[in-house]
Amino acid sequence: MDPKQKFFRHFLDSVAELQDLIDQLGSVSPIAGERQEAIDHVLAGISKLQQEVSDAAEFTPSYDRKQYSDSIKSLQDKLNETLANITPKSRFQFRRSSIKAHVDMGAPENDPRLHPGSFSRNAQNHESEQHQEAIESEQHQEAIESDDKVGDLRSTTGVTRDYNAELSQPGGQFVRKPSFSAAKNIGISDQSNLHIILPSSAARATASGSLTGLNSCIVDMSVPTAQGRPFPGLALRDISQSLIIAGHVDGPVHITGVTNSIIVVVARQVRIHECRDVDIYLHCTSHPIIEDCTGMRFAPVPECYAVNDDSGRENQWNQVDDFKWLKAGQSPNWTTLSSAEVLDESVWTSVVPGQPGKSVEEILHQVGIPRH
């Protein structure tokens, strides 16, 4: 593909991803800095995109660069407008007039983090602290009324609860089904040799999702995300020799540092970085993107994990773009699974959910993990 066209597609995907993240800011809790972290992530994304535009100047005409600059400015305006709508006026002062008619994104003084609309953590006043206490008090009451024993991501003081430590407690080879009924987000990290299935009660916890630092695990998040509560975005990072059934994601999925694993996901965008020997069963409405990857194999998502809405949407699971393969022809870093290599539907419905006496290791071996 022509580098100019390739960058154009990458730019459009990046803008769409940032727009999705901005749209989701209102649903992110302001407690314990979660919303500020999400804002910082968006700001970093805008800054990175501007740098990529600058790096691509050598093969993009001036007209295209002007269009890119205008699109980035629109993202900044949208971010400022969104923050003005979701932020109590007592906490922050938003001045629309401070936005310039034209912004030179290459100038340090115009870094989006320095805009008056960027809402520094230090801008909070005494009234905002009272507002914070009121929110935490409300969450405290909700936690008292909930009978959830495992899945509450936040303690009653607003501090992150280490429920991952609870999942790691000795329990034999039983399948763990944490309810997450009082949680707002799904965040499973630093686990090994666990079989975790999220029940429908976790549907209210799909405001955001992340799986990090997993080894020899089976994680199935398909049930709550198929109940009309898909993740707006999902991050999978540093996972090895595991089976991840990520379920449904309305926005982007970022897969980074995954090795010798199988992933099942339905998403609008999928970006895969620094992965090796991973099979991905996929339904994706845009071209999947890989970068710095080897041994990637793709197949359509199994029927048992599809929902009715998926059938009416185009599936581009095999239209993979390799950003590190600029030569003509097929990239050697990915291929499609043959019909003989694709796991049979009965494996997904009978083996993957677990059986009495079956260990995680045995199930992983039956689905072909690690890859031989």
UniProtKB/TrEMBL annotation:
Pfam families, A to Z: TBCC, TBCC_N
Superkingdom assignment: Eukaryota
Record-linked PROSITE patterns: C_CAP_COFACTOR_C
The UniProt entry, under InterPro entries, shows: C-CAP_CF_C-like (IPR017901), CAP/MinC_C (IPR016098), TBCC (IPR027684), TBCC_N (IPR031925), TBCC_N_sf (IPR038397), Tubulin-bd_cofactor_C_dom (IPR012945)
Record carries keyword Protein biosynthesis: no
Q: Which family does it belong to?
A: Belongs to the TBCC family.
Is Cytoplasm given among the entry's keywords? yes
Q: What is its main location?
A: cytoplasm
UniProt keyword terms in alphabetical order: Acetylation, Cytoplasm
Q: Which residues form the C-CAP/cofactor C-like domain?
A: 199-325
Region called Disordered, residue ranges = 106-155
What segments bear the compositional bias annotation Basic and acidic residues?
124-152
Q: In its UniProt entry, what is this protein called? A: C-CAP/cofactor C-like domain-containing protein
State its location(s). Cytoplasm
Assembly with partners or alone: Supercomplex made of cofactors A to E. Cofactors A and D function by capturing and stabilizing tubulin in a quasi-native conformation. Cofactor E binds to the cofactor D-tubulin complex; interaction with cofactor C then causes the release of tubulin polypeptides that are committed to the native state.
